[in-house]
């Protein structure tokens, strides 16, 4: 599963390191930078999914270069500032910011904002014609045709693990563990029955979820799957 990449531009190293650690614990890939110059030099190559940007940086006010940032990258921007005056927030939003947070930042709120903004961003991007979209919270798989396949709780656990290792064989024991079975017997066919049930679910005849059996190992989900 590809991690959501976040670019965090903040010159306070202690604050930056603590937030980066929290974001990484919640599954994000984070790169930290300390100035506007570093941001402009690296943003194109890093191509982040979201940008967290302190308003006041050692080499200037980030609001002054937001148009330049937008020309280099279309990622949503979250602005941070100690002084969250109404005029500052309005100016930031007018310049193209997607969200404004005052310091000290609540890490849980920051995570929720990133999830919301990147989900909206994903919805506006062109999706490959052969892509599936998996929504772990809503327990659904959306087929390339647009048809939505609903999953049960157990099926969602299995799909979540397969999607996390898409295009890689997943051991049967690991999949059994998703169902709460840590020591299944050789005769236990509950996993195979569930996989068969998942594969039979389809919105039309061409929308079978691309799960295949890998002899001697377990199962594999093939193709491109976007995770929401």
Supply the number of helical segments: 8
List SSEs in N-to-C order: EHEHEEEHEHEHEEEHEHHEEE
Round the Cα radius of gyration to an integer and report it. 21 Å
Low-confidence stretches: none
Strand content: 15-25%
DSSP E strands, number:
14
Strand arrangement within the widest β-sheet reads 2-1-3-6-7
Q: Roughly how many Å apart are the termini? A: 11 Å
Q: Whole-number average pLDDT?
A: 86
State the secondary-structure class.
Answer: alpha/beta
Helix content: 25-40%
The major sheet is characterized as: 5 strands, parallel
Please state the overall shape, judged from the principal axes of the Cα atoms: elongated
Q: What does this 3D model show about the protein?
A:
- By secondary structure, the protein is of the alpha/beta class.
- Helices cover 39% and strands 22% of the residues.
- The chain has helices at residues 13-25, 36-46, 66-72, 86-94, 107-124, 153-164, 172-178, 190-200, and strands at residues 5-9, 29-33, 50-54, 56-57, 60-61, 77-81, 99-102, 132-135, 140-142, 148-150, 170-171, 211-214, 218-221, 225-227.
- A five-stranded parallel beta sheet has the order 2-1-3-6-7, with helices on both faces. Strands 10-9-8-14 form a four-stranded mixed beta sheet, with helices on one face. It has a three-stranded antiparallel beta sheet with strand order 11-13-12.
- Helix 4 (86-94) links the parallel strand 6 (77-81) and strand 7.
- The longest helix has 18 residues, at 107-124.
- It is elongated.
- The N and C termini lie close together (11 Å).
């Amino acid at each position: 599963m590809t991690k959501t990449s976040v670019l965090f531009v903040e010159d306070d190293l202690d604050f930056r390191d603590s937030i980066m650690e929290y974001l990484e614990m919640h599954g994000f890939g984070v790169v930290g930078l300390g100035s506007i110059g570093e941001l402009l030099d690296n943003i194109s190559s890093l191509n982040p999914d979201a940008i967290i940007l302190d308003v006041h940086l050692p080499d200037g006010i980030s609001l002054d270069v937001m148009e330049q940032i937008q020309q280099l990258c279309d990622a949503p921007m979250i602005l941070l500032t100690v002084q969250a005056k109404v005029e500052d927030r309005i100016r930031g939003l007018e310049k193209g910011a997607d969200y404004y947070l005052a310091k000290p930042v609540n890490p849980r709120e920051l995570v929720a904002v990133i999830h919301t903004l990147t989900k909206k961003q994903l919805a506006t991007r062109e999706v490959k014609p052969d892509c599936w979209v998996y929504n772990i919270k809503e327990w659904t798989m959306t087929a390339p045709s647009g048809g939505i396949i609903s999953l049960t709780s157990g099926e969602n656990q299995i799909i979540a693990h397969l999607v996390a290792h898409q295009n890689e064989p997943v051991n049967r024991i690991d999949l059994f563990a998703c169902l709460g079975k840590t020591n299944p017997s050789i005769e236990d066919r509950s996993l195979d029955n569930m996989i068969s049930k998942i594969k039979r679910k389809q919105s039309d005849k061409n929308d079978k979820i691309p799960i295949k059996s890998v002899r001697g190992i377990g199962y594999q989900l093939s193709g491109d799957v976007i995770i929401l």
